[in-house]
Request: fold
Amino acid sequence: MQSSAIEPEGLFDGLHWRPIVRWAALDVVLTLVLIVPVVFYLAGAEALSDDEETATQAIDAAVASPDLLLWSFVLGLSITVYASFRASRAAGTLHLRHGGWTAVVSAVLGFLLLLVTGGDSSPANPLWYDALSLGLMVPAGVLGGWLASREVESAT
Reply:
């Protein structure tokens, strides 16, 4: 006797790609846009100096600082959780799967953006940082999907 599957069997079965791609793209864009005020905060008042060289040095120092690594790590993963939550809600089904795939697509889009821009406009991140950030993206996406599923359960 064969039991019916609770979820689709295939890796891509049941996925709604429009919300996944839309929110993954927004994840990348929001991360890039929201990191700018953090850079200016870390650079301090010198970033707004009338002397262009002083402002550039202050911004370069902020971009190279370990503080920016921490801020971008927390901000990036938080935005991934949010984007995955929204994509999962929009899909309305298989919330964890939609959240995870939103994070995967976001990582791919971010990588493609890095390839297109050349990636050498700022100092290279340490390898452990990149590995940790990428390693936690899918769990962050699944967390966003789980939060969406909890919202659906609490509404019923």
